[in-house]
Amino acid sequence: MLRSTDRALGVHRVLEPRGTLPQAALRLDADPAVGPDEVRIAVQRLNLDAASFRQLSESCAGDGEAVRTAVLDIVAARGKMQNPVTGSGGMLIGTVDAVGPESPLGLTVGQRVATLVSLTLTPLRITDGLAGWDGRSEQVPAAGTAILFARSIAAVLPDDLPDAVALAVLDVCGAPAATARVVERSGARSVVVLGAAGKSGSLSLAAARAAGATNLIGLVRDDHEAAALSAAGLADRVVVADATDPLAVAAAVGAPADVTVVCVDVPGAEHGAVLATADGGTVVFFSMATSFSAAALGAEGMAADVTMLVGNGYTPGHAALALDLYRHQQGVRSLIDPRVEA
Ligand code: NAP
To answer: L-erythro-3,5-diaminohexanoate dehydrogenase N-terminal domain: which residues (predicted)?
Structure first.
């Protein structure tokens, strides 16, 4: 007999291996029938995690049809959208269409919501074969059902922003929240963001500024992104380097910073991030392409006394903070909007 606290975590939906939590499971039961403490969402759009989409796209050599087939195969096999290579997922938006009588989430039928729990633990069934998606964008128009557990979180979609924008911002809302928390708690003055012209990167720069940092360095991959970030005005200094080249990162950044935030969507940024960070400083690894062993062993090998944080996707107030930064910072909008399909 499952304890209600275990049920709240969705353990009853795990098919394989039994007894694991849904995030770690190989396969979930995506049956759309809701249990007494569950909520069902009629899915409208998925947002694939950037690291997952990039990996799928590269492994399919950019062939959109093949990417679509790969996503359908993953969801059919696993009952959730968890890329087996990156381990990451994303999130979704849709309409609440059934609420179990014991659900504590406070949602009502008809509300339009974004799930703030990862697709890697969300039971998902797709019913339209993703017919409206060309396989070339992180955002995926989709029909189907998703299940929220008693201990899930969802945000009612704001009515002043397009769905696609809200979805993109909410997907990465853990990054600005984590950045703000680290800057506030440590009193950090200097912050480096790797991948600073991306969605989580631009939000993290804005959050660092709002939290009191006074020396913001944005590292981007090329001159095109450098021009966009400079025009956005979010960083005091914009530098160009390949985040996966540690020596290039260190040379570009110069004096190491109090805090480094890793917002790239590619593997291999761990050592550059450590080198960019001053002794006693903190690295926030928001990227899902981060290797724990590369980060830990790399820091040890460089005798670097840095605190390394895994970018937890959840911090209280994270959704409101990110949406407000988007609403009020023209520079953030100028970087995010071109990345979002209307
Ligand atoms: P994004 O908008 O695509 O931004 C990533 C940025 O990194 C882009 O500007 C990209 O440039 C840049 N970049 C890629 N390779 C680079 C390199 N070698 N050197 C320098 N810059 C490079 O991605 P996002 O949506 O912000 O997501 C960023 C990361 O956050 C992903 O790894 C994602 O998995 C992770 N994430 C984590 C959580 C969590 O809960 N921790 C939640 C959501 C997402 P180009 O555009 O030119 O390629």
So the answer is: 12-158
